[in-house]
Amino acid sequence: MINDLWYKNAVVYCLSVASYMDANGDGIGDFAGLVLRLDYLQGMGITAIWLMPFQPSPGRDDGYDIADYYNVDPRYGTLGDFVEFSQGCRQRGIRVLIDLVVNHSSNEHPWFREACRDPKSEYRDWYVWSAKKPKDANSGVVFPGVQKSTWTWEKNARAYYFHRFYDFQPDLNTANPEVQAEILKIMGFWLELGVDGFRMDAVPFVIAKKGTRTTLARSVERYDMLRSFSEFVTWRKSGGDHSW
Length: 244
What we know:
Layout: E1 12-15, H1 31-36, H2 38-43, E2 48-51, H3 79-91, E3 95-100, H4 110-117, E4 129-130, E5 151-154, E6 159-162, H5 177-192, E7 197-200, H6 203-206, H7 220-238
């Protein structure tokens, strides 16, 4: 069990790296600039920084269309810059939280491109497909007036793919055990680089039964998936010296 319930009393400061301090003068905020402001943030009395997505992305949805879960967008710096930031936070008693955007990926992610290219690809079942456009394709849209459907035809795949958000954000098939294992891998990667916790994006859709029925799943298994993610973080953090 976690005896350290720091998050219950944390003073959390949410920020976008891109719109924060620019250290190299290119007009875009970066991790080097954020490091320079850590003393200021500490002086404000915050105890945790929550970062909005900073991974490589086409940037069509403010970074929530991730094209690489294991890197930093070059505009914001490098993985080394991120580690310098996380270590700087740790030295000041500030925890680091990041968005975990795993309901969907960018349609430019190599997983999706490979899934479209080859129906026998190992990544094909990482997304949700239909040979015909489902009857309820126009229901359940998240952005009415902007988004017309939750299913879009992909000419290379010769099939429709499911997306609760924009058509450039195909839903990951979170019911697939391989996808769940990959999510744990992503979490483990960032924990190793100094992250203390995650804010999971679009949780209701992550646990929903994806496809032609878009209501929330009521099965125990889907909630068990979330529980396994939480237990994974607890186990990884309790194994280190991060109980400060």
